């Protein structure tokens, strides 16, 4: 899950359009205080924070994430006004992992996000046996269909449930496997030895 904290609704929509097709779930916040509350509910895999926001700047959000959470996520700071070298230095000194200026190039932004997530420590998810047991029967069904390349709507139709419910299952599968995206979930399940069919193993191998 990627948390985007920015008071610019247009920019949040742009980032959602860049990140979601790449397989990332996006949560939007309009201010630093709201972003901190959402992080307390569930720690995101990555935080994208604008420097200048009402009710908690990006600098303050970065500082508090680093000081209040034992294992805080990677932080990518963005700004359309604080673009000087000393602004970037301040963000990095406060604990940000990267700093980009607006307007962002979509391809470059996505590459930076992927690089930060690759470098971030993966949550410990225990042995393959324990991880497999942590997945419910329905979550295994959803994971197996994801491995076959079935879309969320098609999964819902096959299992006789609502697409929104499928999305909820996927939301629970990702943290259980320590994955940042659906593709990573499939690969991780295969690498951990969670039982999949021959067809699913071929699908996972093609992704790796």
Q: What structural keywords apply?
A:
208 residues, alpha/beta, Rossmann fold, Arc Repressor Mutant, subunit A, 2 domains, 5-stranded parallel β-sheet, 11% strand, elongated, disordered C terminus
Describe, in plain words, how this protein is organized in 3D.
- The protein has 208 residues and is an alpha/beta fold.
- It has two domains: 2-119, Rossmann fold (3-Layer(aba) Sandwich), CATH 3.40.50.2300; 128-207, Arc Repressor Mutant, subunit A.
- 56% of the residues lie in helices and 11% in strands.
- It is built from eleven helices and five strands.
- The chain has helices at residues 9-19, 32-41, 58-68, 85-93, 106-119, 128-134, 137-147, 152-159, 163-177, 182-191, 198-207, and strands at 2-5, 26-29, 46-50, 75-79, 98-101.
- It has a five-stranded parallel β-sheet with strand order 2-1-3-4-5, sandwiched between helices.
- Strand 4 (75-79), helix 4 and strand 5 (98-101) form a beta-alpha-beta unit.
- Helix 9 (163-177) packs across helix 10 (182-191).
- The protein is elongated and about 50 Å long.
- Mean pLDDT is 78; it is low at 123-133 and 196-208.
From the 3D structure, determine the CATH topology of the largest domain.
Rossmann fold
The strands making up the biggest β-sheet line up spatially as 2-1-3-4-5
**Whole-number mean pLDDT:** 78
CATH architecture descriptor name of the largest domain: 3-Layer(aba) Sandwich
Please tell me how large the radius of gyration is: 18 Å
**Overall geometry:** elongated
- Strand composition percent: 5-15%
Beta strand count: 5
Helix/strand order: EHEHEHEHEHHHHHHH
